Automatic annotation (TrEMBL):
PANTHER family: NUCLEOBINDIN (PTHR19237), NUCLEOBINDIN 2B (PTHR19237:SF23). Residues 231-266 form the EF-hand domain. Pfam families: EF-hand_7 (PF13499), NUCB1_N (PF25434). Its main location: cytoplasm. InterPro entries: EF-hand-dom_pair, EF_Hand_1_Ca_BS, EF_hand_dom, NUCB1_N, Nucleobindin. It comes from Sparus aurata (Gilthead sea bream). It is a peripheral membrane protein. Residues 1-17 form the signal peptide. One of its GO terms (cellular component) is endoplasmic reticulum-Golgi intermediate compartment. Keywords: Calcium, Coiled coil, Cytoplasm, DNA-binding, Golgi apparatus, Guanine-nucleotide releasing factor, Membrane, Metal-binding, Phosphoprotein, Repeat, Secreted, Signal. GO terms for molecular function: calcium ion binding; DNA binding; guanyl-nucleotide exchange factor activity. It comes from the Eukaryota. This is Nucleobindin 2. Residues 142-203, 344-387 form a coiled coil.
Length: 479
């Protein structure tokens, strides 16, 4: 089983290297091993990828087909067709994994939609998730496996390039910030800063010889320093078995990079001000790519024992020239630096314009808010004035009613209904406004019905008699 997953795994999986032990020098019989535990590949669908592989390798039929497959068959999708023969239980689990991945992607799309306030090109976004067949969100089919293999192959082939581009931007930004600091210094401080910068550069460049990665001298140094063995006893086959950490018969990318640690320690020390650990990791990547280009003849991102032994017989294996480090090979040109600074200037200008536009919008909103507040205050003042006028009018009406009630009491025992009717009608017709209300007055035992025109308040479409007027009327007219 050591090899069964490696052809497919080599497309996208990285295996975590472990410390080297001298006890591994003894030859051991080939035995069945579990697939190496994969580390994060750096792909955004890494977890989904590893879980699919894990379940596919549990199926005996697929495992056997994978063991006998070659890289061309895998890349051309022939291996994916074997999914039709995978056991139902594993297919059910793969369906579940796909639904979980679809749910994760939908969540990412919703999050991006919220961040960009709805301005999301969904079709363009889905192209970033080509490792899935979005037309069938429920079941894991042959097309899904084919997409997964092709996406992982393509993405990992471009992964190193992406890392190089990111490192270049890092270096240019670091230089840009240094130049900006110099601009803000006076002449004396600027000279002092430049002198210190040059001294640190010279100090960093002064280091022991760095052997060519994958050369005899480099491997013998590992044999001596890491393994504690005599360089005169160096044996390529034994060396390979010792540093094949998981015993799968291949050097993966992480296992290769572990071989360069001693060389990198000659140049980089985390305690030194002049040494940048980000640059060290870029140097490690460059070394690994160099060895892969020289040794990995079938381009499966793995180095088999046969490929390794064949490389030790080549003339390049005896390479004595020193490896040129990053300080001898600048990652960008001055022209690229100018373009990058122009790009930063354009970005800053765009940000300033957007900031100014947002500031204008803010000021406009504040002015509109002030206008609304002023209008609200004006309406409140007008309403308050009307209420005061209405209240004053009602008080005046009450006084008049009081005066009228006194005259009513002068009627002979309240029997002169015509006089009462005439007086009330005259008063209320004189002081009426807009609404009518029928009121029934009881004067002693005599009931007289009058049509009263009273000021009113409108509420929910209904007309109601003003409470103050009724109070005053009841108080003085003795309802």
């Amino acid at each position: 089983m050591a090899h069964c997953g490696l052809v497919l795994l080599s497309l996208w999986l990285c295996v975590q290297s472990v410390p080297i032990g001298v006890d591994n020098t003894k030859d051991k019989p080939q035995e069945e091993l579990e697939p190496p535990q994969s580390a994060d590949t750096g792909l955004h669908y890494d977890r989904y990828l590893r879980e699919v592989i894990e379940f596919l390798e549990k199926d005996p039929h697929f495992k056997e087909k994978l063991k006998n497959a070659n890289m061309d068959d895998i890349k051309q999708g022939k291996l994916a067709k074997e999914l039709d023969f995978v056991h139902h239980n594993f297919r059910t689990k793969l369906d579940e994994l796909k639904r979980e991945e679809m749910s994760r992607l939908r969540m990412l799309i919703r999050a991006k939609h919220d961040i960009q306030e709805g301005n999301v090109d969904h079709q363009a976004l889905l192209k970033q998730f080509e490792h899935l067949n979005h037309g069938n969100p429920d079941t894991f089919e042959v097309e899904d496996l084919d997409r997964l293999i092709k996406s992982a192959t393509n993405d990992l082939e471009n992964y190193d390039k992406g890392r190089h581009d990111e490192f270049k931007r890092y270096e240019m930004m670091k230089e840009h910030e240094r130049r900006e600091r110099l601009k803000n210094m006076n002449e004396e401080d600027r000279k002092r800063e430049e002198l210190q910068y040059e001294e640190l550069r010279k100090k960093h460049a002064k280091h022991p010889k760095v052997n060519h990665p994958g050369s005899e001298d480099q491997l013998k140094e590992v044999w001596k320093e890491a393994d504690g063995l005599d360089p005169e006893d160096f044996d390529p086959k034994t060396f390979f078995k010792m540093h094949d950490s998981n015993g799968d018969g291949f050097f993966d990318e992480n296992e290769l990079e572990a071989l360069f640690t001693k060389e990198l320690e000659k140049v980089y020390n985390p305690d030194n001000e002049e040494d940048d650990m980000v640059e060290m990791e870029e140097e490690r990547l460059r070394m690994r790519e160099h060895v892969m280009n020289e040794v990995d003849t079938n381009k499966d991102r793995l180095v088999s024992m046969s490929e390794f032994l064949a490389a030790t017989k080549k003339e390049d294996f005896l390479q004595k020239d020193e490896w040129e480090t990053l300080d001898q090979n600048p990652v960008y040109t001055e022209e690229e630096m100018r373009e990058y600074e122009q790009h930063l200037a354009n970005e800053a200008n765009d940000i300033n314009m957007k900031s100014a536009e947002l500031q204008k919008q803010r000021e406009q909103l504040e002015r509109q808010q002030e206008e609304l507040n002023a209008q609200k205050l004006e309406l409140q003042q007008v309403d308050s004035k009307k209420q005061q006028q209405l209240f004053a009018g009602e008080i005046q009406s009450g006084i008049q009613i009081s005066s009228l009630s006194k005259s009513l009491h002068m009627c002979n025992n309240w029997r002169n209904t015509e006089t009462l009717s005439s007086n009330l009608k005259t008063y209320f017709l004189t002081n009426s406004t807009s609404c009518t209300q029928m009121l029934l007055f009881s004067v002693d035992s005599v009931q007289v019905q009058y049509l009263l025109l009273l000021p009113s308040l409108r509420c929910s479409g209904q007309v109601k008699v003003n409470k103050i007027q009724l109070f005053l009327l009841r108080g003085y007219v003795r309802l």
